[in-house]
Amino acid sequence: MNLGAAPKDAGEHAELLEFDMDMDGFASNWAYCDRLSTYFARMISHNRSDSLLYSNLFSSALNELLETVYRLHAPSGRFVCSVARRGASERITLTVPVDAQTADFYRSAVSVLNDGDLASRYHTALFTDGPLQPNIGLLELAVDYAARFSIEPADGNAIRLIADLKLEETEA
Question: Measured between alpha carbons, how far is 127 from 147 in angstroms, rounded to an integer?
């Protein structure tokens, strides 16, 4: 695992932290989702107006994303998670190794997340009988955290899932 601040250009966002590791390593232990999200949250929350609240919110949001990746990925490849900041906005970029079916899931999920009436979709998904839909965590982030999602191709057999979060209001 490579963990550290990345010098890459993040556009208008300043990159704060990045880790990358083999997907089979990440997928070997469910607890990595919680450990990584907690670590990231503590590292980036120190300069927020309520750092404890911000850390809790960010950790919960990132954990949902990591759990989605834990469940839905190709069996091998590099997994990268980076966090960048612009003002009150955090951008989480997950580079996920995918096969054709998994790539279709992520493209479809992002399409649904940008299609409106998310609260109704989330409520329906949450209270249907049977197993939860695989995109339930992403729906939760879109509804409860007002996350905005996009997707783009990455090198090799991978996609970049991008989530923009604004967890703290700024004073005008």
Answer: 21
Instruction: Print the domain residue range for 86.
Output: 2-7+18-166
Q: How many residues does the chain have?
A: 172
Q: Is 7 exposed, middle or buried (0-12, 13-18, 19+ CB in 10 A)?
A: exposed
Q: Phi, psi at residue 124, to the nearest 5°? A: -60, -45
Question: What's the predicted TM-score (pTM) here?
Answer: 0.88
CA distance 3 to 35: 13
Collapse the DSSP code of 157 into the 3-class scheme (helix H, G, I; strand E, B; otherwise coil) and give the result. coil
d(CA 36, CA 155): 24
- Quote the number of domains for the chain: 1
Over residues 94-149, the pLDDT tens digits come to 999 999 999 999 999 999 998 878 888 888 888 888 887 888 999 999 999 999 99
What's the rounded Cα separation, in Å, for the pair 125 and 153?
27
Assess if residue 13 is contained within a domain.
no
Residue 172 resides in a domain: no
